[in-house]
Amino acid sequence: AVRAWLYHSSLISGEARKAAYVKAAIAANHGRQPLATIAIAKTAANEGFGDAVAPYADAALVALDMEPRRIDLFGDAERIERGERLALRGMHAEAAEALRPVFTRQSALDEDQRVRLASALAKALAEEKEIDEAMLVLRTTIESLPRVAQRQSLYQLAATLLERAGEIERAIQALEGSL
Q1: How many angstroms separate the CA atoms of 1 and 104, rounded?
Q2: Which long-range contacts (CB under 8 A, 24 or more apart) does 138-146 make?
Q3: In the chain, helix, strand, coil percent, each to 5?
Q4: Mean pLDDT, the chain, as a whole number?
Q5: Residue 128 CA neighbour count, 13 Å, CB half
Q6: 122 within 8 A of 132, measured Cβ to Cβ
Q7: 112 vs 54, 120, 137, 154, 163, CA distance in Å?
Q8: 63, 9, 17: which is closest to 36 by C-alpha?
Q9: Cβ-contact 73, 55 below 8 angstroms
C-alpha cells in the first residue's frame, strides 16, 4: 500500500499529492515500517507538505524509541513507559533524559505514576553514576506520598541503589527511613 500511494503521489499535484503522502505515511505506520514513514515525511517536507505528515513521523520516531519532534505529542504516562523501555534496553542516559521533563511536573501525576516515575528515573540515574541525583529524586517523591507502603518501597529501592554504589552506610540509613 505504501508503494502504491507513493507512486500515486508522483502522478498528481497539490492537495491530492499531500493527501497521498499522508495515506502513504499512515500505511507505513500500520505496516510497522517506521523508517519508511520517516522517509515519506522527509520527502513530503521537501515538497512543502511536512506539516501534513508530521504526526505520523512523530509516531514513527516514538516506535523507534526516539524523541518526537513535537514535545507535547505524548502524555506523561507514555513518557514514563518509554523511559522504562529504554532503561530495560540498557539505554540509561536516554531513559533519564526522557523522564526528567516528567519529573519536573510530577505533582500533576497520581501517586502510582509518581512511584513508577521516581523508580525508573532513580534507577537510570544510578546506572549513570548519578547516585546523589537519584537520591534527590527518591527523597522528593517520598515527601509527596501519603501512603506508607509506597514510601517504604522507595526507601527499599534507595537502599538497593546505594548498596550497588558501594555506599553501605547510606543504604542502612535508607532502610531506616532516612535519605
Answers
A1: 42
A2: 138/179, 139/179, 140/106, 141/106, 141/114, 141/115, 141/117, 142/179, 144/106, 144/107, 144/114, 145/111, 145/114, 145/115, 146/111
A3: 75, 0, 25
A4: 91
A5: 20
A6: no
A7: 32, 12, 15, 12, 25
A8: 63
A9: yes
Residue 20, C-beta contacts closer than 8 angstroms, at least 6 positions apart? 5, 6, 8, 9, 12
Using CA atoms, how far apart are residues 150 and 158, in angstroms rounded to an integer? 13
pLDDT, tens digit only, all 179 positions of the chain = 898 998 889 899 899 999 999 999 999 999 999 999 999 999 999 999 988 999 899 889 888 877 777 655 568 888 899 899 999 999 999 999 989 999 998 988 999 999 999 999 999 999 999 999 999 999 999 999 999 999 999 999 999 999 999 999 999 999 999 98
Q: Dump pLDDT digits (tens) for 104-129.
A: 989 889 999 999 999 999 999 999 99
- For the stretch 68-78, pLDDT in tens is 776 555 688 88
Distance CA 37, CA 153 (A): 42
Q: What separation, in Å, do the N-terminal and C-terminal C-alpha atoms of the chain show? A: 57
